[in-house]
Automatic annotation (TrEMBL):
Keywords: Hydrolase. InterPro entries: Amidohydro-rel, Metal_Hydrolase. One of its GO terms (molecular function) is hydrolase activity. This is Amidohydrolase 2. Gene3D superfamilies: Metal-dependent hydrolases. It comes from Pelobacter propionicus (strain DSM 2379 / NBRC 103807 / OttBd1). Residues 79-285 form the Amidohydrolase-related domain.
């Protein structure tokens, strides 16, 4: 990453099918779903290309596309740990997507504009050691998707994990709200109220998507998120996915709460930006015709996203806040051991 970076997309996905020895896999159920074909197109790859060139091709395509952005300097590319069984080991039979830390750490180390976002399921028998390893490998944050990884953030057995996370200074980016990108999900685990435990222990938590959909405990997840924000100054949120068709109006609701503006960080949820689900047309009623045309003419997905979110009122400081919150490595040349 070059010096002087100010805008970082903290929420960018990658994927893989195990090609080139990546260690990635996608479950048979997901590969048989229509979603799999959509994701391949969104990543601008074919399955045959991955078989020929390896899963690292996706990372190269992300970096190349991002390098053509005028407005975004770097992206945090996210690993994805799987479901862990009672024996403390990965359970492939119920894991839909697995993207190892080692693969993401090695690949991101080769690109100036990509940063390593780690993922460690805290139920792993060696979870604390894995945390130390990903930090040594240059991780800037830790990513969870509880409803898919079957992680209960409120589980008191996770206290030692949270304390290590806090002491390492590694922010926890965790999905809040319902999850609709997989074939099944335990959406009760995306309840923001379940984050009360790590927040009370001093962990910096970033609520992915700002709890923009779903309900728990008889109220909206967003209301539950707002209550937590009033209690914990270490709770933040990213603005990834909140302009998508299935979350129309949420950015406006979020921005009505001026007290939250200093808690927001820029993210995209790439590659979903390229599927059409976040088209500027969904917000045409809020944009002048000239501004809408200008956004539509922008072919780079990051630049289009930034321009649209700016036009919808997202404050400029949101786009440059990540560097102060992430665990930024002193240099991008770090030891990428295979955790």
């Amino acid at each position: 990453m070059h010096a002087g970076t100010t805008t970082i997309d903290i929420h960018c996905h990658t994927a893989g099918i195990g090609a080139g020895g990546s260690g990635c896999f996608v479950s048979p159920a997901l590969r048989g779903s229509w979603r799999y074909r959509v994701y391949l197109r969104a990543f601008n790859v074919s399955e045959q290309e991955l078989r020929n060139e390896g899963d690292g091709l996706i990372m190269r395509r992300i970096s190349e596309r991002l390098s053509r952005s005028r407005l975004v300097d770097a992206a945090v590319v996210l690993a994805m740990d799987g479901v862990v069984g009672d024996n403390g080991r990965l359970d492939r039979s119920v894991t839909e997507v697995y993207i190892p830390n080692g693969f993401v750490a090695r690949e991101t180390s080769g690109y100036q504009n990509l940063l390593f976002g780690a993922s460690v399921n805290p139920y792993r028998g060696d979870a604390l050691a894995r945390l130390d390893q990903v930090v040594a490998a240059g991780a800037v944050l830790l990513k969870w998707l509880p409803s898919i990884q079957h992680i209960d953030p409120a589980d008191t057995r996770l206290i030692p994990f949270y304390l290590r996370l806090r002491d390492l200074g590694l922010p926890l980016l965790t999905h809040t709200g319902n999850e609709e990108s997989f074939t099944r999900a335990r959406n009760e685990l995306g309840d923001p109220e379940r984050l009360r435990l790590p927040l009370s222990l001093g962990v910096v938590v970033i609520a992915a998507h700002a709890a923009s959909n779903g309900r728990n405990g008889g109220e909206s997840n967003f209301r539950r998120f707002l209550r937590l924000c009033s209690e914990f100054p270490n709770l933040y949120a990213d603005v990834s996915a909140i302009t998508q068709a299935n979350r129309i109006g949420h950015l406006h609701r979020l921005l009505r709460h001026g007290e939250l503006h200093d808690r927001l960080l820029y993210g995209t949820d790439m590659p979903l930006l390229t599927t059409g689900i976040a088209s500027p047309w969904f917000h045409a009623h809020l944009l002048s015709p000239a501004r809408l045309v200008r956004i539509l003419k922008n072919r780079n997905p990051w630049d289009r996203d930034v321009e649209m979110k700016r036009s919808l009122g997202l404050p400029l400081p949101v786009f440059s806040r990540a560097t102060a919150l992430l665990r930024m490595p002193d240099t991008h040349e770090v030891d990428h051991a295979n955790p």
